[in-house]
Amino acid sequence: MDFQTSKNLGGIGALLMFLGPLLTFVNAFGGLLSLIGFILVLISLHSFAGIYGESGIFNNALYGFITGVVGGVISVGVFVITALSLLSDLGVTDWTNVTEWTDLFATEAAAFGFIMDLITAVITALIVLFVFAIITAWLYRRSLSMLSSKSGVGMFGTAGLLLLIGAVLIIAIGIGLILVWISILLVAIAFFSMKPMEAASTPQPT
Fold it and tell me: Are 35 and 42 in contact (CB under 8 A)?
């Protein structure tokens, strides 16, 4: 794949990732759009890893994707397992049995204890997700920093740093998600700002 095609794929992919969350509020197509955009960015990074002779440009992004998926699966698993274990300990074995649920909330103390334990399970799952989100963002930043160094487009490095800061601030949902979203737009701009490597100049005859 040539330089121009890789550049366009990366820019278009990042733009799709940027627009995806906006369309998600309208319908589920936004999530699919973001996924397609991310795949295009990965393809672009793989191409640039070959163009610049730096495998870390693609590998770190790929590891970041894998880490993000694993983190999401583990966090969901932690919540589900904890919730099921909690219900089992409280005697709820059949979710369709109204009597068991009625007995569970028979007293205010029992209801309060169940709610607090459930909140603890949610917080634990969110902590796991938070840790994996930071690791994922750090890997993406490494990929973007390498691409910035090789291409000479400093905006890649800025986007990577903003992405990492957004992941750290993800606990403050509004601020963190907004920074991550802005970093994706910067990645798109950076891709479209790339210029081909200049060919080495041949010595002029004296």
Answer: no
